[in-house]
Design a protein that fits this description.
Structural class: alpha+beta
Order of helices and strands: EHEHEHHHEEEEEEEEEHHHH
Number of domains: 1
Oligomer: single chain
Bound molecules: 2-oxoglutaric acid, fe (ii) ion
Number of helices: 9
CATH architecture: Sandwich
Helix content: 10-25%
Low-confidence stretches: none
Length: 289
């Protein structure tokens, strides 16, 4: 029997979580958000799941419901995406300084990070295992290598071995691209509602099979390095007024930020200028949107 994933609580030291993520590529935070946060998210997002259809393809799961554009559908994701352990781990693992010469000046640039995908994933009875995969395969990068994604799965319902709790192969982010993942190597994520699984993009994982009568619901957010293309196009998925409902830190994470030294500008400026009101935009002589 393989040991389970390392389990921490919200009060854990960030350095301890980062050390576990570097070693295993995945960790559990038992109590990521409280019942009030969870209830608010259910109130906003639950109806979207109920009115939605099952996925139309085998990979996403024919007995799985998925809802995306989460920052457009709820304004209550701040405590999730800015949780000090989740955001802190993402920053620690991805915002590594890069040095460069600009003329004769040796400069250090720290990349930004950004929300890359959001999804509610509800696995129903009869859904089989998802193929084990690496989510950073999207980045078409060789392994092993620097972390380009840190992802969260917030349990909106209980996660168990029987109901499809995410299967994870600890340590598989250290593997090269020749080694194939095997089902027998994967261990299920077990979480109470409000708990979270944090994992890095290079770790093999996948949804489990649900053999129970009750659906398993998770809310996933991925934070990626800011110099990569977002998986889910946040600029198109989240209308301006929904972006403005979030605090500046979250707006920056949604992509209204520059990745140093200079990716993502608008009008030679920070892209968040497009969030200003129309009068200010006209006064500054910028193109109105
Ligand atoms: O639902 C899960 O537990 C994981 C889903 C997943 O890995 C994915 O959609 O890429
Ligand atoms: Fe995945």
């Amino acid at each position: 029997m393989m040991a389970g994933l390392t389990r921490l609580t919200s009060g854990a030291a960030l350095d301890d979580l980062v050390a576990v993520l570097e070693r295993d590529g995945a960790a559990i935070v038992e109590d990521l958000v409280g019942a009030d946060v969870l209830a608010g998210l259910w109130a906003d997002l639950g109806p979207c799941l109920e009115s939605g259809d099952f996925s139309g393809n085998w990979y996403d799961g024919l007995r799985t419901r998925r809802v995306s554009s989460l920052f457009a559908r709820t304004s209550r994701l701040t405590p999730v995406v800015t949780h000090p352990l989740y955001l802190g781990a993402a920053r620690a693992l991805m915002q590594k300084p890069v040095t460069m010469w600009i003329g004769r000046a040796r400069q250090e640039m720290v990349p930004s990070i950004q929300v890359s995908t959001t999804q509610l994933i509800q696995i129903h009875k009869g859904q089989g295992k998802m193929p084990l995969h690496r989510d950073d395969a999207l980045h078409l990068r060789p392994h092993p290598g620097p972390t380009t994604r840190v992802q969260l799965m917030l349990a909106m319902s209980e996660f168990t071995a029987a109901n499809g709790g995410t299967l994870v192969i600890p340590g598989s982010h250290h593997w090269d691209d020749e080694r194939a993942p095997k089902s027998a190597e994967a261990i299920p994520t077990e979480l109470p509602p409000g708990g979270g699984l944090i994992w890095v993009g290079g770790v093999y994982h996948g949804g489990g099979s649900n053999d129970t009568d009750r659906p398993r619901t998770g809310l996933t957010i991925a934070l990626d390095l800011g110099n990569l293309r977002q998986e889910e196009n946040q600029y198109l998925a989240v209308p301006k007024e929904k972006v403005l409902a979030y605090p500046e830190e979250v707006r920056r994470l949604l992509g209204y930020d520059r990745c140093p030294p200079g990716l993502g500008w608008v009008e030679m400026n920070d892209p968040d200028i497009v969030l200003a009101d129309d009068a200010t935009i006209r006064e500054a002589g910028l193109v109105t949107r």
